[in-house]
Amino acid sequence: MPKQVSMGALMKCSFGVAPSALVVLPKNRVLAEGPPAANIMDHIPLVNILPFGMCNSMGNPMVAAATAAALGALTPMPCLPATSAPWVPGAATVLIAKMPALDNVSKCLCNWGGIIEFSTSATVKTMIP
């Protein structure tokens, strides 16, 4: 059964080199085992989703430019997440601030081609049916 995601959940990106922690602002006024609980709308770059160290995606214009300047040798550049769509699929059975709750099996797509998913949910007991 999927777990509720809350602030501090660890994420990984398929093109990133380091993990990142989810930031959930307390605007929804719902807590999950202490920290604020997340919903699918907690996907804003540099607010909710922080950088994953360096980016290896050729879909990222900075990586493509640096790689071209290095005569085709893949040159990672600093990650700047570009997540324009909410997490999918979310938990349709539980709403937080009128939006589906965010569970640990949801994924978020970066415009540069990366798939962001959770390594840990930051909750232990809070399951979503």
Keywords, separated by commas or semicolons:
mainly beta; four-stranded antiparallel sheet; 8 strands
- Beta-strand percentage range: 15-25%
Task: Enumerate the spans where pLDDT stays under 50 for 5 or more consecutive residues.
Answer: none
Mean pLDDT across all amino acids: 96
Query: What about the largest sheet?
Result: 4 strands, antiparallel
Overall tally of domains: 1
Shape: elongated
Order of helices and strands: EEEHEEEEE
Structural class: mainly beta
- Give a count of the beta strands, DSSP E runs of length 2 or more: 8
User: What is the radius of gyration?
Assistant: 16 Å
**Helix tally?**
1
Termini Cα gap: 7 Å
Strand order of the largest sheet: 2-1-8-7
Helix content: under 10%
Outline the secondary-structure elements.
Blueprint: E1 10-13, E2 20-21, E3 54-55, H1 61-69, E4 77-78, E5 91-96, E6 99-101, E7 108-109, E8 115-118
Antiparallel strand pairs: 1-2, 1-8, 3-4, 5-6, 7-8
